């Protein structure tokens, strides 16, 4: 596998929709679905969690 380093400067961050509610599992970044019962479901992990992690969306 090839590896490289990159130095970058962020010049713009969108104010709307820049964060999303993601699965709290260590190796998963999938968006969770609010089950409306205090639980959040990750379709990738096929599990429900009482919380989530906010993740920054970069594109």
From TrEMBL:
Keywords noted in UniProt: DNA-binding, Metal-binding, Zinc, Zinc-finger
CDD domains: RPA1_DBD_C
DNA-binding among keywords: yes
Gene3D superfamilies: Nucleic acid-binding proteins
InterPro entries: Euk_RPA1_DBD_C, NA-bd_OB-fold, Rep_factor-A_C
GO terms of molecular function: DNA binding; zinc ion binding
Pfam families linked to this entry: Rep_fac-A_C (PF08646)
Domain spans labelled Replication factor A C-terminal: 3-59
Coiled coil: none
Family: Belongs to the replication factor A protein 1 family.
Annotated protein name in UniProt: Replication factor A C-terminal domain-containing protein
Lineage: Eukaryota, Metazoa, Chordata, Craniata, Vertebrata
């Amino acid at each position: 596998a090839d590896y490289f380093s990159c130095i970058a400067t962020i010049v713009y961050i969108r104010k709307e929709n820049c964060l999303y509610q993601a699965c709290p599992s260590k190796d998963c970044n999938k968006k969770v679905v609010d089950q409306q019962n205090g639980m959040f479901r990750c379709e990738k992990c096929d599990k429900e969690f009482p919380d989530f992690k906010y993740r920054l969306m970069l594109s």
